[in-house]
Structures are given as C-alpha cells and as structure tokens.
Specification:
The chain has 65 residues and is an all-alpha fold. It contains two helices and no strands. It has one domain (3-63). The protein is 88% helix and 0% strand. Helix 1 packs antiparallel against helix 2. The radius of gyration is 16 Å and the shape is elongated. The two termini are 18 Å apart.
Length: 65
C-alpha cells in the first residue's frame, strides 16, 4: 500500500472508530444514527477496497520474483 493509500486507510479507520464511539456512548437521534451508519458503511467499503488493492499489489510483486 503506497503512502497516500495508507494515509487514506488510516483516516478512514480513525473515522470509523469515531463513529462507533459516538453511536455507543452518545444519545443520537434516529436520523443521525442512520446517517452515521451510512457513512460507516461507505468507509468500510473504502477500507476493504484499499486492502484488496494492497493485496493485489503484493501478490503481483510476489509473482514477479
């Protein structure tokens, strides 16, 4: 994973943690909960995509050896 993608992954993961804490500890409205859940799902997909890209790059580099 390149530095930019690693930074992007770390930011997304940190935001996911913030969302999780907020949903667990704060009394948020249903509308806000739904919005946070949707944001979390989008961030989850982004993290999964970044990890898959990193795995592909690693496997590609390994197969070239």
């Amino acid at each position: 994973m390149a530095t930019n993608e690693a930074d992007e992954f770390e930011r997304a993961l940190k935001r996911l943690e913030e969302i999780n804490e907020r949903l667990e500890k704060e009394n948020v409205s249903l509308d806000e909960s739904v919005a946070l859940f949707r944001e979390g799902k989008d961030l989850q997909r982004k993290c999964e995509d970044l990890l898959k890209a990193a795995q592909t790059a690693i496997e590609s580099a390994a197969s070239r050896k």
